[in-house]
Amino acid sequence: MFTPKTKQPSEMMTTPELIAQTNQSLLADHQHQLYHLQEILAKKQIDIEPVIQKLQAFQVSVPSWALGTGGTRFGRFPIGGEPRSIEEKIADTSLLHQLTGSNNAISLHIPWDTSLDYSAVRQFAHSRGIKFDAINSNTFQDHPQQVYSYKYGSLSHTKAEVRRQAIEHNCEVINIGQQLGSKALTTWLGDGANFPGQNNFRKAYERTAESLQEIYRYLPTHWQMLIEYKPYEPNFYSMVIPDWGTALLLAQQLGDQAQVLVDLGHHLPNTNIEQIIARLAGIGRLGGFHFNGSSYGDDDLTTGALKPYRLFLIFQELVNAMWSDAPTNASDIAWMIDASHNTKDPIEDLMQATEGILIEYAHALLIDQKMLEYMQEENEVVQAQEILQAAFRVDVRPLVAEARFRNKACIDPLTFFRAQRIRAALIEKRGVASRATGL
Ligand code: LRH
Ligand code: MN
């Protein structure tokens, strides 16, 4: 039986006093930059106060599978000090949240994050200020003691017994989520085909819809089902749920609790993702995000590291949707990171990703939506672009740092993490070969 221990060693290195002390040495310079920005924006009739408050309230959930170094099929390069258990993953999320003030929840993946006592795990997380966001099922790998293989699919499989097994797994994941206090199930299927002729597209879709209907019937009333789409991988000719249209069709067939989850890396090159967001937000079917950065495919790199302007345009569509009373509220959306780190310290990468997300949200909050709407209505193409780019070109980092400061977190979390040699301390505690479950 697991009993919640007192604070984990990793947390001992991040006492609020140490953070406040370090912030003190950075405060004068930070406030100088903030007041300077405040003056610049005041001249544009932009009040920074509501922007900072929105940034403070914005929380991005941590994927449990990204707290260790993820690999590719070509190799995996462990960094050491990786979390070896669900408790250590929660401890690292709590550590991250103490440094950023913007990561107060973790998204678990079953069976990568199984436990013998989920209510004790819930208590452990609660005592560290960490909640549980959407919980993920996994029918894209074969698990120990599993009877039927998912080699040829799961919810879309041609054999009823395999579909049954996958449905029961999803229901079991819902049971676990309920014990943890999650309010949503994320279902991403690796189901599809590698070769023409391998699958009957219509039957595969219909079997998937039927299977999801059975899981949907098991969903608690106040829960959401988040349907995640992906154009390819692990199948490379077709995926049963390849795009937002198919995910939306399934969600509409299932019912109001079914929503579409947008993983930024799950789009073919040059897809206008912000238009997909506008479409889904416009009809109240945008359930959540998996934030990451990519150039080619599902690269799962740091959010905002490659295409910050696209991330800005995505937040512009979200802010505009919420401004213009579209049936979408920030609180209804599951904001989650989904990344896999081959060459960065996972905690440093999650700090950079969180910063990248808050920066583009801040840029979108600077936009005068009424003025933009007017320019659009008047087909003032040049002026409309000027409004967007003027906001994007403001250095909003003092606003994001101020939100962290007010959340009692670090003005500069990355420098703090390095200066406190936290990775070295994690390696000392957990060993250089400790390995996290996940990708
Ligand atoms: C699929 C995916 C999905 C997760 C997995 C870890 O590519 O984005 O969200 O289940 O990564
Ligand atoms: Mn994802």
Automatic annotation (TrEMBL):
<dbReference type="GO" id="GO:0046872">
    <property type="term" value="F:metal ion binding"/>
</dbReference>
<feature type="domain" description="Xylose isomerase-like TIM barrel">
    <location>
        <begin position="118"/>
        <end position="299"/>
    </location>
</feature>
<dbReference type="Pfam" id="PF01261">
    <property type="entry name" value="AP_endonuc_2"/>
</dbReference>
<dbReference type="GO" id="GO:0016853">
    <property type="term" value="F:isomerase activity"/>
</dbReference>
<dbReference type="InterPro" id="IPR050337">
    <property type="entry name" value="L-rhamnose_isomerase"/>
</dbReference>
<keyword id="KW-0479">Metal-binding</keyword>
<dbReference type="InterPro" id="IPR036237">
    <property type="entry name" value="Xyl_isomerase-like_sf"/>
</dbReference>
<keyword id="KW-0413">Isomerase</keyword>
<protein>
    <submittedName>
        <fullName>Sugar isomerase</fullName>
    </submittedName>
</protein>
<keyword id="KW-0464">Manganese</keyword>
<dbReference type="InterPro" id="IPR013022">
    <property type="entry name" value="Xyl_isomerase-like_TIM-brl"/>
</dbReference>
